[in-house]
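Can you make up a polypeptide sequence alongside its tokenized fold?
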Amino acid sequence: MLFFVAALFVKRHRLFLIFCGVLLYVTSTYYIGNKLVTILEKPYNVPLKETKTDAVVILGGGHYKGSSNLPLEEGSFKRLMYGIMIAKKRNLPIIYAGADYEIEAARLSIEELNRTLDLNLTTPPDGKLVPRFSVLYTKNALTTKQNAEQTARLFAEQNITAPKIYLVTSATHMKRAAALFEKYRMQVVPAATDFKTRSDSCYCFYYPSTAGLRLTNIALHEILGSLRDRLKE
């Protein structure tokens, strides 16, 4: 509204102000944000493929520093829980990849889950990847590319070539993450979670909101990230 009001009182740059107002309105509607994330998520909004794999790889996604319990961010916690569900059901090892602070938050969350739910998710004392329900952590990785590098290095240390993995990350992030992991000679079975697409609709979808703007931001972040990765090839 401020853009449109300003356009009424200025002569120069009026069209620019109107354009900015329209652009901000469009990108902050839930309708547009939902359409954009749907494009990214739709290919992965399917039942999990059943196949033999070497491990479940979970990508970190942020944390709340200073939280007294379950310090992982909402999307990151969904990734952790879905990865645990997959590994528990199939008796597979978990590799948690992320930055040091994400790994520490994941450790704390797993400790809490072990105490309250009796998951019995343990870390092998020798740091070896064992073919059973267990968890290992990569070294510090600040980007998805570094996550892939560190995971590939861990497999190489275990003398596992061309590993096949369930890759667990947010659905909007899956396309870019899978492409990076495949560059490091890993066979990726997408295990997307943290879906943000909504199939319902209401008039409120056309109101500008911070929720709509956040969806647009998430989608553009992944689209521009994929473009950046391609340009670096």
Notes: The CA atoms of residues 70 and 109 lie 5 Å apart. The first strand starts at residue 55 and ends at 59. The longest helix spans residues 210-231.
